[in-house]
Write a structure and sequence with these properties.
Blueprint: H1 2-20, E1 33-41, E2 47-56, E3 59-64, E4 72-75, E5 80-83, E6 85-90, H2 127-130, E7 137-142, E8 149-157, H3 163-166, E9 167-177, E10 182-184, E11 195-197, H4 201-220, H5 228-231, H6 234-237, E12 242-247, H7 250-262, E13 268-272, H8 280-285, E14 290-292, H9 308-318, E15 323-325, H10 338-346, H11 352-357, H12 361-367, E16 384-387, E17 399-404, E18 407-408, H13 414-426
Parallel strand pairs: 1-4, 1-5, 6-7, 9-12, 12-13, 13-14, 14-15
Antiparallel strand pairs: 1-2, 2-3, 5-16, 7-8, 8-9, 10-11, 16-17, 17-18
Length: 429
């Protein structure tokens, strides 16, 4: 009887392992690889026709026309090559199923918790993370959510055994949710529907200022007792980390940047920026880049232009700001649509190569990883993919090859396996 129980347990364990197993990470590149006859979209606004791209030891060594290919040759005639797309400010790998609390590690207890590090909670075996790769999303900024100061993010690549292997840039920045001047009324409590003034706005703003000043003072002295929250803030005062401030309203954006600059926090990134188009001269004056919210959404207010979310990135780019696309409040699963958010902006009149920059070169520059990622440039990481057609159009975004740091990456995911299984079933095979 005991032997039977052991056998049953082993069967369940093997099934569980199979159901949760990730695709095996790619092996380190050992053979020089050449991609020939491709249309190369560089990620800096330029395109090279009939391009040959060569990479070895995980780095791009040659790119251009009339280059003699060497090593393993991939003929990409009629196809396109792109740098890997980058998804900033997402809780990928921190939450698997919203309804299952045990799989949700995106938030911690407390309002001011910059010392909470998302990196050590990052799950490389997440099926959600794995599902990003077939659309070309190969890098991400793993970001905690919740509270006033949510914690510290890190940037990873999406092919690794563990978080140590995945890390591109550890603890790159702290994330601050700025108080809102207006909030949605709780109509079930008798409040008006729509937006109403937040009577606690000034109080909440003062709490942020008090925390920042205390953290700054903490760094100027040798403390008698260690304060982990204050210690985690020192990088934003000495400019070794960025401060990502989440704000959407015109008043909130102005208040946030003015207050933070007054407290000697200079390396700022605005995340969200729904009304940023109203104050572009102010943002340019203070050299603040914007990770704008995703485009597939409805206007927030009744008197907004019906197409404001669609054209917002173009309005900011046309104003001369450094702009990337962030997924906003969309679910993790929607992150795979990142290239199509950029494609939406093309439909609003933005040049296609500039739209590509919103999820490649620009985002890499904003996150501070443009020395190695974001563009197809000699000396940078061979993190790229080959697509049958236009990767910003869901009709053309059909990947044939993917490489991260030169490693060949599988395009199989839990979803593609299920698709093949049930396509065969309903085709009667």
């Amino acid at each position: 009887m005991r032997k039977l129980i052991h056998i049953i347990c082993l069967v369940f364990l093997s099934v569980s392992v199979e159901l949760t197993a990730q695709q095996t990470p790619g092996k380190k590149q050992t053979e020089t690889t050449s991609i020939t006859n491709a249309i190369a979209h560089i990620g800096d606004g330029s395109v090279i026709e009939e391009c040959t791209l060569i990479f070895e030891n995980g780095k791009i060594t040659h790119i251009g026309q009339n280059i003699t290919p060497i090593g393993k040759i991939i003929n990409a005639s009629g196809k396109r090559v792109y740098p890997g797309f980058i998804a900033p400010s997402k809780e990928l790998g921190l939450i698997e199923v919203n309804a299952v609390r045990a799989s949700n590690d995106k938030d911690e207890v407390g309002d001011f918790i910059p010392h909470v590090r998302s990196l050590i909670a990052y799950n490389t075996e997440s099926k959600v993370v794995e599902s990003m790769r077939p659309n070309g999303v190969l890098l991400g900024q793993i970001t905690p959510k919740g509270g006033r100061i949510s914690g510290t993010s890190s940037i990873v690549q999406f092919d690794a055994w563990n978080w140590e292997d995945a890390t591109i840039k550890a603890d790159d920045g702290v994330h601050l949710n700025w108080p809102t001047k207006y909030r949605k009324g709780n109509w079930w409590m008798g409040e008006p529907k729509g937006f109403i003034p937040n009577k606690k706005y000034q109080q909440q703003l003062n709490e942020v200022v008090s925390f920042l000043r205390n953290a700054k003072a903490y760094g100027k002295n040798i403390p008698k007792e260690e304060n982990l929250a204050f210690l985690a803030m020192q990088g934003i005062f000495n400019n070794t980390q960025k401060l990502y401030v989440y704000a959407n309203g015109e008043r909130e954006i102005i208040d946030a940047i003015s207050v933070l600059k007054a407290n000697d926090i200079n390396d700022l990134v605005l995340v969200g920026g729904y009304e940023a188009y109203k104050i572009t001269p102010f943002l340019k004056e203070h050299n603040v880049p914007v990770l704008v919210q995703f485009t597939h959404s409805l206007p927030a207010k009744d008197d907004d232009d019906y197409d404001l979310p669609y054209k917002l990135p173009k309005l900011l780019v046309d104003a001369g700001l450094l702009v990337g696309i962030q997924n906003g409040s969309a679910s993790n699963f929607q992150t795979r649509n990142l290239p199509f958010y950029a494609g939406q902006v093309v439909g609003q009149g933005l040049d296609k190569e500039k739209a590509l920059q919103l999820i490649t070169g620009n985002t890499a520059q904003i996150l501070g990883i443009n020395d190695m990622y974001g563009t197809l440039t000699v000396g940078k990481s061979a993190t790229l993919f080959i697509s049958e057609g236009d990767a910003l159009d869901m009709r053309g975004n059909q990947l044939t090859h993917v490489f991260i740091d030169g490693r060949t990456i599988s395009l199989e995911t839990h979803q593609t396996e299920l698709w093949k299984r049930y396509m065969n079933k309903y085709n009667g095979k």
